[in-house]
Specification:
Blueprint: E1 2-6, H1 11-22, E2 26-31, E3 50-54, E4 72-75, H2 87-102, E5 109-115, H3 125-137, E6 144-149, E7 152-153, H4 158-169, E8 172-176, E9 182-183, E10 186-187, H5 188-197, E11 208-211, E12 217-218, H6 219-230, E13 235-239, H7 244-254, H8 259-268, H9 279-283, H10 291-303, E14 336-344, H11 348-356, H12 368-380, E15 400-401, E16 404-410, E17 415-420, E18 426-437, E19 440-451, H13 453-480
Parallel strand pairs: 1-2, 1-4, 2-3, 4-5, 5-6, 6-11, 7-10, 8-13
Antiparallel strand pairs: 9-12, 14-19, 15-16, 16-17, 17-18, 18-19
Helix pairs in contact: 1-5, 2-3, 4-6, 6-10, 7-8
């Protein structure tokens, strides 16, 4: 079949793409930036069945590049991690443009992955937006199949990583009352199986299904079972005095999630997300994976460094426009810079390997405690901090690396450009470039800051003493270690 896949660079989309290609389908991936799409993750065997088209569903004029010969379209677009309070408007606009486009194609089915919305005690803004998108998608002429899931457990999923952070980092947890809320977690493998199983099924056309694993647990039980699987003893004390705002700050400080995402997650945690029925299990034969088994599978993927996708790789929260990545140029006017250069004669591949290994558990080759302190400061003001780490040993455009986002990663030309997503009064870039010079090579490392008003200029001046030590040490270690 000819399938249109939106959200193909997201956590679910990346994994679904591999499965659809293995099944022999021809896939068109609609992406905001072709440079963020990781072609290396696609098997050479199926490359001829893949078409990547750059478009933005918030910009209706960009959709003309998409093909009209479509059998099934997956709608996996969401804006939950977007900075600001307009994510619901963005989701409505995107869904409306999607419906208008799909109505002009030969598509026979739309498949939409939503959230469970059976709780009538007032849905969170996130779940309300998910339900609203369902309504928008049904306004078109193409039949819609809706799959509603609770939290997804798998290596790289936001839910799994938050649970892991809480249990691994806190021997004693003072937690809010939402830990008593019930949830029906589902393994990522089961999500993919259901997404594939419903396509081209007459019984699933114009139907909605709740999907979940076999376990119904409170969030506290999920934390406790994680601790048991890891052989850890953890004490959880529930208190009723933590407001949603305080809970969000607590979650953002302790875990890898950012404050905007933490706030929306906490807002949703008041709602019970449990399947209303198991109708889907009678239509699609899937061996439902228990919560504990899903944890074990995630541990295995992480230990073998085989994490296919991660929630943190979404660029939705970034302030840069991913459509401009084809011509990345760091600003040179109205900016302050710290430029360090050093020559080296060792193999260039070794230096590139050092540069491409920056961040995450490897650190930044200088003053680890300073970087950690800067990460804590960023968390305290609502930023992402260092907790995001990095996905694996690779770097591609759009990847998250601690509080940076990869704008360009070109190993052949020896150039890496990072954009800061920390909370600062301005914008910042960190660029590494290797150039040949006679019988040796020269590494140039440039930190660029474009200040916003007087506060931005004062910030740069205050950081100069730290920059002198950090950046000089970093470049020296990159070429010597």
């Amino acid at each position: 079949m000819n399938i249109l896949l939106t959200g193909s660079t997201g956590y679910i989309g990346k994994r679904l793409l591999s499965t659809l290609l293995d099944d022999g389908h021809k896939i068109t991936c609609a992406v905001r930036s072709v440079h963020k799409f990781d072609r290396h993750s696609v098997s050479k065997e199926w490359e001829h069945n893949l078409n990547v088209v750059e478009c933005d569903f918030c910009d209706q004029s960009s959709l003309s590049a998409l093909p009209s010969d479509i059998d099934v379209a997956y709608y996996l677009i969401h804006s939950m991690s977007t900075v600001g309070d307009n994510f619901a408007d963005n989701e409505t606009r995107s869904a409306s443009h999607f419906v208008q486009f799909i109505s002009t194609t030969t598509a026979r089915q739309i498949v939409y992955l939503s959230g469970i919305t059976n709780d009538n005690d007032g849905l969170s803004s996130h779940l309300s937006s998910r339900r609203n998108v369902e309504t928008v998608l049904r306004t078109g002429k193409v039949p819609v199949t809706v799959l509603r899931a609770a939290i997804v457990i798998g290596s790289g999923s936001a839910s799994f990583e938050i649970i892991r952070d809480l249990v691994e980092k806190l021997p004693v947890m003072v937690a809010p009352k939402w830990l008593r809320t019930r949830c029906q977690p589902i393994a990522i493998r089961n999500v993919i199986q259901y997404l594939v199983g419903v396509i081209n099924s007459d019984q699933c056309i114009n139907q909605s299904f709740d999907i979940g694993g076999p376990d119904v647990l409170t969030y506290q039980e999920m934390l406790q079972q994680y601790a048991q699987e890891r052989g850890l003893k953890r004490v959880i004390i529930q208190v009723g005095v933590l407001t949603p705002r305080l809970s969000s700050l607590w979650l953002a400080l302790v875990t890898t999630t950012s404050y905007p995402l933490a706030r929306r997650l906490v807002d949703s945690l008041k709602n019970e997300v449990v399947c209303a029925d198991d109708q889907i299990t009678r239509l699609i034969s899937v061996e439902r994976i228990t919560y504990r088994k899903a944890l074990q599978m995630a541990f295995d993927k992480i230990s073998h460094k085989n994490v296919i996708s991660s929630w943190r790789d979404s660029a939705n929260s970034s302030r840069f426009d991913t459509r401009t990545l084809s011509n990345v140029q760091v600003p040179t006017f109205g900016v302050s810079t710290d430029i360090q250069t050093t020559a080296f004669t060792r193999p260039i591949s070794e230096v590139i390997k050092n540069i491409w290994s920056l961040g995450g558990h490897n650190g930044w080759q200088s003053a680890r405690w300073m970087w950690q302190a800067r990460g804590v400061m960023d968390k305290l003001v609502g930023g992402v901090g260092l907790g995001r780490g990095r996905r694996d040993d690779r770097l591609i455009t759009g990847d998250a690396v601690d509080f940076w986002r990869v704008l360009l990663a070109d190993q052949e030309k020896g150039r890496l450009v990072l954009y800061a997503e920390m909370k600062i009064p301005g914008e910042a870039w960190l660029e590494f470039v290797i150039n040949p010079e006679g019988d040796h090579h020269v590494l140039t490392q440039t930190a660029t800051f474009r200040p916003l008003g007087l506060s931005g200029r004062l910030y740069w001046i205050a950081m100069l003493p730290f920059h002198f030590f950090i950046f000089r040490t970093m470049i020296n270690n990159l070429v010597t270690k």
